[in-house]
């Protein structure tokens, strides 16, 4: 969940580390710190709070020049946010930063106490650095390998040893870590945006690999200590893609980037007017033989899976089950050899989702990953991968990643229907062409920002809010509600419209805000009946519907109309005003839109 950076070279390391941490603050912002080589000594500076607190602290110290160091921005797991719990953690000989969780830290701490070690923090990371110190006999790699044999859990580590002022050591398991190549300087980081100001040339460390980063080279060793050659990758993003580009917040920028992200994701997967998955072995013969589909994700990714489930069943007539990743791995799921498990993750590093993938593979079931990050853990371990092309998503609340995930699920559903001949080819071509029109249709929806902002101003003081819808609209209700609650902190719930009268309608009193989604023609009248029920009990209602929909004047306080479009694809249009509504509610309430409290972008712990 935390962010790691490392630098060695001729630049002032503090500047490089702070710049990198700024790009990674979305991964955690409870505290931050750096460990710097100043001469032959390691100087640690860290502070509770946002990165600005650390920056001010460093500015007041007037430290001598440093050309090697490691940095960290923390999302608290073990131990509350505080100066003492902040990273780096150190001994007189070793300093390290850590992303992950050491599961057996309590037992290791007791073991180390018997050897005279004392502890001042509540963190598992302090245990880790003191275990490494205990095992250190002058050879860092030997000490690191011995230490990792003793720990259970996940980790991405950057380490400096006082005896080796010209090297940074790093290793990963289940937590992301990359190395970046420069000219007379080298880098490491949790994610690509931290490096883009300095280099686009990088490599991804595999699990268990140890990287030794020097100014003139990067040596990588496997878990047995044998050298390995790493494939060099080139980031397609530039630094501007990781900046706000004139928008007030990253979230708003990323909402407006959705047409381009959708175009870049959909276009490569259409050939001769038909959907083309472009994945070796994921061919029509394989698709025709699938018995059941299991779709697994967390949060927003899981909601994209719900849209995919409805599309798959409607178009291809294949049973599809959607699972929350953290439940899937523990409920002993019934999956058979001819099933397919679809794993959805923006980062490709989501721990629960990665564990679900491993479970499916252990049962011999084929897995398809839908991810946004090239070479991520999930991408590397899945049998098949379809990449989304959202580019970097910096705001914690996912927007464009959700849209491109939905678009890939639609492409998959269309190709599955084509392979299984459950729809005429003419219909598949028609729907594929419609899907390609989505980026153009979203632009006028984005032009309605001022209207959505006005609506938000009418509801910004709400304590509770309800979303309702049927079919695809119910899936969008869940995502709209999640967006609202995670960035505005308003209590929000989403329900299938027909379920309200089975208990929840008792919560509707005068003035209760209800957002009714009604874009599906086949259930429009039913949804309007449900809207009438809440309106009769005093609800203040916003209806989101198609342009031509006949919404009775007496059941809606506000109506937001969307362009006419094929019903199956309406989620791709509908999500935009819902994202904007959540965004403006957050802004008007004075919340930190891009960095909502208690949340981090990439969840790499359980």
Helix content: 25-40%
The secondary structure category is alpha/beta
Largest sheet: 8 strands, antiparallel
Total helices: the number is 18
Strand content: 15-25%
Give a quick rundown of the structure.
With 606 residues, the chain is α/β, with parallel strands linked by helices. Strand 7 and strand 8 form a beta hairpin. Helix 9 packs antiparallel against helix 16, helix 13 (400-420) packs antiparallel against helix 14 (425-446) and helix 15 (449-459) crosses helix 18 (570-588).
Folded structure, characterized:
This protein is an alpha/beta fold. It contains 18 helices and 27 strands. Strands 3-2-4-1-10-9-11-15 form an eight-stranded antiparallel sheet, covered by helices on one side. A seven-stranded antiparallel sheet has the order 5-6-7-8-12-13-14, with helices on one face. A five-stranded parallel sheet has the order 19-18-20-21-22, with helices on both faces. The termini are close together. The model has no long low-confidence stretch (mean pLDDT 93).
